[in-house]
Amino acid sequence: MKKIVVLTGAGISAESGLKTFRDSDGLWEGYNIEDVATPEAWKRNPELVQDFYNQRRKSVIEAKPNEAHYALARLEEKFDVTIITQNIDDLHERAGSINVVHLHGIITRSQSSRKPDLTYPINGWELKMGDKCEFGSQLRAHVVWFGEAVPMIEKAAQICTRADLFILIGTSLAVYPAAGLVDYVPRNTPKYIVDPKIPHMNTDSSFIKIEEKATVGVKMLADKLLG
Predict the structure, then answer these.
(1) pLDDT, tens digit, 9 for 90 and up, residues 150-179
(2) Enclosing domain of residue 82
(3) 195 and 118 in one domain?
(4) What integer pLDDT is reported at residue 77 of this predicted model?
(5) Which residues, 6 or more positions from 88, have their beta carbon under 8 angstroms from its beta carbon?
(6) Do residues 220 and 175 share a domain?
(7) How many domains does the chain have?
(8) 5 and 56 housed in the same domain
(9) To 10 degrees, the CA torsion angle through 33, 56, 39, 155?
(10) Final residue before a domain boundary, out of 143, 172, 205
(11) CATH assignment of the domain containing 206
């Protein structure tokens, strides 16, 4: 069975109504990134950071997977599919995708402030100050912040080396180390990119370009691959 590796970014979730991580003005939902997405912000004002991610989690829970998410899940009828996502939502899983690697964590889980690999499911959308892990440390959103290591990146790189077909969806390739994953895909592997504004890529000119939004382009590609 051929192995398809998919790398998804904010563009695929935007069509489900979730704001992209960083708007053109450099803000995320009206906040400076430095105030809500760094370890320093958490030390400085944990209540603000906790509330920010509670609101994001509420938005994720209210959102629904779109046609692009469902089209990727459909590929599993015929292929061995692994999705590597930069997104912190669970829309791929809710659409039916089985193998999903979250590079930047997943907002529907919490993690210990002391031991980042100690994570728990969250009931509902609210994580409260005073909710603690088994070692007595405050729980926070299971999200990789700026300045923190990306623990799944090595696993993701290994997955990319085994791709028989590679699909890039809704990402500007501006955030590292995720953007560097393209370099691990074998040179002769067919590669597709789906995006309404395809970014300039220095690494490889061999991408087959589908200049459409994800709900249109991914469905077109899935229909083609499934024959």
Answers:
(1) 999 999 999 999 999 999 999 877 667 777
(2) 1-18+65-104+150-227
(3) no
(4) 96
(5) 56, 60, 102, 104, 105, 106, 107, 141, 143
(6) yes
(7) 2
(8) no
(9) -100
(10) 143
(11) 3.40.50.1220
Radius of gyration of the chain measured on its C-alpha atoms? 18
Whether the bond between 177 and the residue before it is cis, its omega within 30 degrees of 0, is: yes
Do 14 and 174 contact (CB within 8 A), yes or no? no
Residues in the chain: 227
Catalytic machinery residues: 104
Tell me: do 11 and 69 sit in the same domain.
yes
Query: For residue range 30-52, what is the model confidence (pLDDT) as tens digits?
Result: 788 889 999 999 999 999 999 99
161 and 185 fall within a common domain: yes
Mean pLDDT of 171-196: 88
Which two three-digit tokens encode residue 217?
A: 């382009």
How many Å apart are CA 18 and CA 29, to the nearest integer? 10
Pairing type for strands 80-85 and 119-121 reads unpaired
The per-residue DSSP string of 134-197 comes to TTSPBEEEEEPPTTS--TTHHHHHHHHHT-SEEEEES--S-STTGGGGGGGS-TTS-EEEE-SS
Q: Select from 223, 218, 222, 225 the least CA-distant residue to 11.
A: 218
DSSP state of 75: G
Q: Model's pTM, two decimal places? A: 0.93
Residue pair 5/165 in contact (Cβ under 8 Å)? The answer is yes
Q: Please check whether residues 24 and 100 belong to one and the same domain.
A: no
83 and 136, same domain (yes or no):
no
Token pair for 47: 């209540």
Q: Of the candidates 58, 55, 53, 69, which has an alpha carbon nearest to the alpha carbon of residue 13? A: 69
